[in-house]
């Protein structure tokens, strides 16, 4: 799991530190407060040391981290230095991992690679993370991996990594009763299941037995289908795999299945899965608040810009104490306009 | 004009009159007297050109109102409080200005938005059909503590 991160002068951040729970971490905030950048940075750091380069280069993670940052953030001409803040010569990232692993690296704005400044057994951190990006992947799966490898395309590496993970064959046996229960929850939500056939295309098989091309299945179901596949092939194995990062899980998901989505996330978390979400959605937040049991570990991180325009964070376990709450503020604006319509100048 | 209701302390700067409508003390001039058969809003405020019917609810556990049955119960309660108050005031011959219904509830902004829509439909607000020559409610707004103070600085409220 990831314990904490400290970021200085990286992309939009000036100086920010966050500590995480081993349960569900939820990033909320207005646009351009760095939610997706945080997810991607944490993913890049936890995914980089899985590459073969790190071992080929005598456990020196320099190249592996540089390549992963380039793949995930796509700086122009693969110059990692472009990820420094505009006004900075150098940025520094420090990530503390469990158990007792630390990696700290710096990026100079005029360099094309990172410089590792502290490495406490980083190469021994072996938990493989999963990143689910905002756009649905099952329908572009066919041929996507080979296209990504052969051509320069603007889609970032999180999509490629997820495609690779989806391609892993199924386990012969579902690993345990808890995973079976999770799969059953997903199947109920999707009213069917997704299958990868020998022609390397995904299909949707409804509970009524009808087989459809994946493009014809509801987009919200397809997002759940990704979880289903990753659990079936063991790439996502609560308690064993690395963190699950999910950027805007609500996109293209019907609000009526948000409750099931949150139930599934809570079930994953209760089975030892560390989760990081970035969301703009009130319904997800509220269901997390309503469905969580006292023993569930949920930490809300509210990212916001202070008066100087710098990004800060307030973290709280209490839904009511999320401050500022950009989602709630949006509802407040609606209410204010509505009152103006109904009451005119009365009470002003 | 200062009024204290259900833990909320109001100050109505521009009120001509304000009183507890569901008064239960027989010795007071505004004693309701029909609470066994008619529901009642908490407060009535008279302004120069309008009346305000105000209902206040400070919930111990606002989350229970996310659940459909509790939400529906609250909606019905707010509707009948208004309608019975309207009838009572009609019988008093006090429907001489447009009436605006304000519900101060300790709910979050998203739930407030939903309740606003429901109450307007249920009262109903305005003249929903062409046969009506007049409305029973000019307008209705559901607000929480923060939105009240933001939108109604002349009617400030604080927790007593």
Summarize the structure in words.
The complex is a heterodimer of chains A (348) and B (160). With 348 residues, chain A is α/β, with parallel strands linked by helices. Chain A has helices at residues 35-48, 53-56, 62-73, 144-150, 157-167, 177-190, 219-232, 258-270, 282-291, 326-343; strands at residues 2-10, 13-19, 24-29, 90-97, 101-108, 114-120, 130-132, 192-196, 202-206, 211-213, 244-247, 275-278, 298-305, 311-316. The model of chain A has no long low-confidence stretch (mean pLDDT 92). Chain B is an alpha/beta fold and 160 residues long. Chain B has one domain (2-159). Chain B has three helices and eight strands, in the order βββββαβαβαβ. Chain B has a five-stranded mixed sheet. In chain B, a hairpin with a 2-residue loop joins β1 (2-5) and β2 (8-11). In chain B, α1 (68-91) packs across α2.
Structural class given helices, strands, pairing of chain A?
alpha/beta
Oligomeric state of this protein: heterodimer
Number of strands of chain A: 14
Report Rg of chain A. 21 Å
Topology:
The complex is a heterodimer of chains A (348) and B (160).
Chain A: E1 2-10, E2 13-19, E3 24-29, H1 35-48, H2 53-56, H3 62-73, E4 90-97, E5 101-108, E6 114-120, E7 130-132, H4 144-150, H5 157-167, H6 177-190, E8 192-196, E9 202-206, E10 211-213, H7 219-232, E11 244-247, H8 258-270, E12 275-278, H9 282-291, E13 298-305, E14 311-316, H10 326-343
Parallel strand pairs in A: 3-12, 3-13, 7-11, 11-12
Antiparallel strand pairs in A: 1-2, 1-4, 4-5, 5-6, 8-9, 9-10, 13-14
Chain B: E1 2-5, E2 8-11, E3 17-20, E4 43-46, E5 51-57, H1 68-91, E6 99-105, H2 109-122, E7 139-143, H3 145-151, E8 157-159
Parallel strand pairs in B: 5-6, 6-7
Antiparallel strand pairs in B: 1-2, 2-8, 3-4, 4-5
Helix pairs in contact in B: 1-2
């Amino acid at each position: 799991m990831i314990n904490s991160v400290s970021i200085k002068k990286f992309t939009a951040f000036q100086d920010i530190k966050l500590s995480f729970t081993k349960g569900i971490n939820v990033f909320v905030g207005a646009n351009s407060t760095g939610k997706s950048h945080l997810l991607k940075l944490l993913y890049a750091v936890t995914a980089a040391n899985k590459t073969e380069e790190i071992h080929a280069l005598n456990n020196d993670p320099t190249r592996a981290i540089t390549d992963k940052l380039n793949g995930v953030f796509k700086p122009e001409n693969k110059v990692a230095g472009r990820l420094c803040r505009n006004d900075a010569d150098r940025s520094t990232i420090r990530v503390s991992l469990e158990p007792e692993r630390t990696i700290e690296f710096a990026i100079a704005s005029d360099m094309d690679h990172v410089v590792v400044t502290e490495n406490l057994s980083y190469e021994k951190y072996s938990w493989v993370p999963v990143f689910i990006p905002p756009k649905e992947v099952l329908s572009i799966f066919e041929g996507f991996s080979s296209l990504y490898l052969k051509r320069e395309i603007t889609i970032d590496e999180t999509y490629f990594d997820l495609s690779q993970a989806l391609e892993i064959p199924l386990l012969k046996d579902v690993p345990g009763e808890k995973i079976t229960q999770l799969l059953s929850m997903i199947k109920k939500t999707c009213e069917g299941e997704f299958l990868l056939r020998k022609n390397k295309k995904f299909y949707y098989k409804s509970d009524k037995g009808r087989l459809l091309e994946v493009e014809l299945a509801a987009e919200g179901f397809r997002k759940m289908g990704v979880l289903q596949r990753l659990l079936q092939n063991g790439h996502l194995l609560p308690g064993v795999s690395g963190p699950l990062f999910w950027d805007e899980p609500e996109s293209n998901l019907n609000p009526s299945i948000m409750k099931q989505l949150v139930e599934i996330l809570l079930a994953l978390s209760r089975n030892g899965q560390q989760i990081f979400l970035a969301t703009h959605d009130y319904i997800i937040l509220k269901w997390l608040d309503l469905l969580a049991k006292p023993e569930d570990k949920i930490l809300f991180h509210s990212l916001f810009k202070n008066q100087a325009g710098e990004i800060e964070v307030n973290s709280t376990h209490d839904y009511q104490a999320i401050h500022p709450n950009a989602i709630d503020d949006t509802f407040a604006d609606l209410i204010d306009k509505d009152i103006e319509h109904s009451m005119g100048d009365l009470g002003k | 004009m200062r009024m204290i209701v259900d833990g909320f302390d109001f100050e109505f700067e521009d009120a001509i009159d304000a009183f507890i409508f569901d008064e239960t003390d027989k010795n007071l001039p505004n004693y309701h007297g029909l609470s066994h058969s008619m529901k009642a809003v908490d407060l009535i405020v008279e302004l120069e050109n309008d009346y305000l019917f105000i209902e206040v609810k400070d919930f111990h556990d606002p989350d229970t109102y996310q659940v459909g049955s509790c939400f529906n119960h609250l909606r019905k309660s707010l509707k009948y409080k208004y309608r019975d108050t309207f009838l009572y005031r009609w019988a008093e011959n006090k429907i001489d200005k447009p009436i605006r219904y304000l519900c101060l509830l300790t709910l979050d902004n998203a739930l407030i938005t939903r309740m606003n829509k429901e109450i307007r439909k249920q009262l109903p607000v305005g003249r929903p059909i062409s046969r009506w020559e007049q409305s029973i409610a000019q307008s209705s707004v559901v607000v929480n503590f923060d939105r009240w103070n933001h939108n109604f600085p002349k009617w400030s409220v604080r927790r007593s």
